[in-house]
Design goal:
Order of helices and strands of chain B: EEEEEEEEEEHEE
Order of helices and strands of chain A: EEEEEEEEEEE
Strand content of chain B: over 45%
Shape of chain B: globular
Structural class of chain A: mainly beta
Largest sheet of chain A: 7 strands, mixed
Structural class of chain B: mainly beta
Distance between the termini of chain B: 41 Å
Number of helices of chain A: 0
Largest interface: A-B, 27 and 24 residues
Helix content of chain A: under 10%
Shape of chain A: globular
Number of strands of chain B: 12
Distance between the termini of chain A: 36 Å
Radius of gyration of chain B: 14 Å
Number of helices of chain B: 1
Oligomer: heterodimer
Chain lengths: 114, 114
């Protein structure tokens, strides 16, 4: 088991472009989370999947953001028409069905919008 | 809503010094409490957790006790090492009010000098 994998690790994009990030969770984990972390702050919750169902979305997730988890395996997070304020580290985490179980985090995708 | 407040950082200590990082929380339900650690260049890792009042979480010489009366979960270590240098995040998960999401504090940067 290689843990939670995120791709790419770094992304630089021009304002207005669309970007897509991928997260591969630990294989037996059916819960998958996306968080956003800006410099000097703790991670902020964006959205959460149980298997392929997106069960919760933060108000931080504007209509420019969309997340999918087809077939309950990997997940993608797409940001359309990127803005400079979208520059952040995007973290993915996965866990088992038991909500008290540890969430394992990936190393994140650092997005820079120029 | 739920929130977590950590002591302002950064914290700089000499090796073998005693460490305390304060964490207080606000939650309407009965949350589980966590400390996560982020070493340079790595993803967030669970350090320890406590799921009910008066529980003590411990790992790698670190301890934290869930104090419901003071809504606190302070992290302590008796003798820090250079390898403990990292960013430490206090977090909570409240299944009743916020489902499986983690709410994080802003993080505390710890630097341990030899």
């Amino acid at each position: 088991d290689t843990g939670v994998s995120q791709d790419p690790r770094h992304k630089i994009t021009k304002r207005g472009q669309n970007v897509t990030f991928r997260c591969d969770p630990i294989s037996e984990h059916n819960r998958l989370y996306w968080y956003r972390q800006t410099l000097g702050q703790g991670p902020e919750f964006l959205t959460y999947f149980q298997n392929e169902a997106q069960l919760e979305k933060s108000r931080l997730l504007s209509d420019r953001f969309s997340a999918e988890r087809p077939k309950g395996s990997f997940s993608t997070l797409e940001i359309q028409r990127t803005e400079q304020g979208d520059s952040a580290m995007y973290l993915c985490a996965s866990s088992t069905r038991d909500w008290e179980d540890e969430a394992f985090f990936g190393q994140g995708t650092r997005l820079t919008v120029v | 809503g739920d929130s977590v407040t950590q002591m302002e950082g950064p914290v700089t200590l000499s090796e073998e010094a005693f460490l305390t990082i304060n964490c207080t929380y606000t939650a309407t339900g009965y949350p589980s409490l966590f400390w996560y650690v982020q070493y340079p260049g790595e993803g967030l890792q669970l350090l320890l957790k406590a799921t009910k009042a008066d529980d003590k979480g411990s790992n790698k010489g670190f301890e934290a006790t869930y104090r419901k009366e003071t809504t606190s979960f302070h992290l302590e270590k008796g003798s820090v090492q250079v390898s403990d240098s990292a960013v430490y995040f206090c977090a909570l998960s409240d299944q009743e009010t916020s489902g499986s999401r983690l709410t994080f504090g802003e993080g505390t940067q710890l630097t341990v000098n030899p």
